[in-house]
Amino acid sequence: MGDNLFEGLPPPSSSQQKNQEEELQQSATINKKREASPVPAPVPILKSALKKPKTNPEPEAPVSGKSLRFKTTTDASETQVIEAMKKIASHINNPAKFGKASKLAIQMIQAGSIKPGTSDHFFAILEAAMSSSTSCTDPSVRADYHALFSAAQDAAECLNKKQKNQLSTWTIRAVVANDLFTDDSFVFSKAAMRIKEIISNLPLATKDDDVEEAVALKDETEMTNEDGSDEQEMPLGIMSEENKKDESDPFGLDALIPSKMKKDDRTKGKKDSVVKVRKEEEEENKRFLKSQREALITCLEIAARRYKTPWCQTVIDILVKHAFDNVARFTSLQRDAIEKLWASIREQQTRRKHGKSVTGKLDVNAFEWLQQKYAGEKISIRHSVGGGGDRRAQQWLG
Q1: Would you say which domain of life the source belongs to (predicted)?
Q2: DSSP-derived secondary structure letter, 42
Q3: Is it the case that residue 168 has pLDDT exceeding 80?
Q4: For residue range 1-27, what is the model confidence (pLDDT) as tens digits?
Q5: Distance CA 330, CA 309 (A)
Q6: Pick from 150, 99, 101: nearest CA to 124
Q7: Cα distance between residue 305 and residue 341, in whole Å
Q8: What SS3 state is found at 202?
Q9: What is the DSSP code string of 368-389?
Q10: Cβ neighbours of residue 389 closer than 8 Å, sequence gap 6 or more
């Protein structure tokens, strides 16, 4: 009795046994179905399938030759670059079109289109720009001239010696002179330092320079009709030379007679060519110095006009004083102009010291105020020892 655990319990009913058997059968059938037909795993979606399909771009219509434009000239041929430069040169001397034409020229410089083969056409652009009726210091085109000739320095290597000299003179007029109109004291001081440097590098003027200047001034002031008389006299001179040749060789036989001195003629021709080259170099150097001096005088005049601006006065004083100290490097008329300018500057300094100026205000800058303050002061060699500079020590008690 103790071994039977279910002793005394009622026997299980038949309905419960049937329910348990049905549940077991259902679970067995479900397991069989799952094993017979397994569910496939979901296929992963690729990112490329989510992208939109590429559509074929429509073919571009052919561009006509007249409307062809290129952002940079690196893809253009040399002939296209030359044609573009010719168009720019034809429009850049027009003040109304100067801004646009100068920007196109700057783009060509930045694109590297200025090469030995195109340097002459590029120089023609600069020459046309400086031959404009409007001055390069005019407020309407001042910034464009400054930008153009500042960028032109990158293409100076492709120019010859004569063109480089001319470009340096134009740079003084278009860049340095325009920097004197700035409101930035640093830029103004930098331009003044550059002018001083150029003045110091000038050679001393000679008597020949003074004579040439006087002759050139006389030719400009004379208003005569000598051109017409010269044109009428030229044919007569040519006819007289031809008559002399006919008289010396009436039958034209000198060309048929062989010359015995061919070698001497060749050596003489070589010497003449060398002398001619040297003479051209000397004339070019004189012309360069003349134009450079004139550009520097223009810069000094522009600086003098800005003397009413207080922060410009000290820089202008130093600049004009430097030009006056190196006045021997200029011609006679230019020396007179510099001397008058320096006299005007000294007069303005005297007026400022007495509290009088052109504007009617007390126009004394900081340097002059300190100079005036300490002009009568006695400074001790022991620094602050001695209140009035009498070198007597004072003992401070307490």
Answers
A1: Eukaryota
A2: P
A3: yes
A4: 456 666 666 666 656 666 667 777 777
A5: 28
A6: 101
A7: 11
A8: coil
A9: HHHHHHSSS---BTTBTSSTTS
A10: 377, 378, 379, 380
- Rounded distance between C-alpha atoms, residue 328 and residue 221, angstroms: 26
What number of residues does the chain have? 398
The per-residue pLDDT for range 197-217, each reduced to its tens digit, is: 999 999 999 888 888 888 888
Q: For residue range 340-361, what is the model confidence (pLDDT) as tens digits?
A: 999 999 988 888 777 655 555 5
First to last CA, the chain: 124
CA-to-CA distance for 179 and 11, rounded, in angstroms?
A: 121
Cβ-proximal residues to 217 (8 Å cutoff; 6+ apart), any chain? 333
Please provide residue 145's backbone torsions phi and psi, each rounded to the nearest 5 degrees: -65, -40
pLDDT in tens, 258-295: 555 555 666 666 667 778 888 888 889 999 999 999 99
Per-residue model confidence (pLDDT) at position 192: 96
Q: Nearest-CA neighbor of 144 among 123, 152, 154?
A: 152
Give the span between the Cα atoms of 240 and 257, in whole angstroms: 25
Residue with tokens 């004189």: 286
Say how far apart CA 380 and CA 389 lie, in whole Å. 5
Cβ density class 117-146: b for 16+ within 10 Å, e for less: ebbebbbbbbbbbbebeebbbeeebbebbb
Structure tokens at 221: 């002031």
The amino acid present at 134, given as its one-letter code, is T
Q: Give CA separation, 346 vs 292, 312, 313, 350, 356, in Å.
A: 26, 15, 11, 6, 13
Q: In the chain, what is the greatest distance between 2 CA atoms, to the nearest angstrom? A: 176
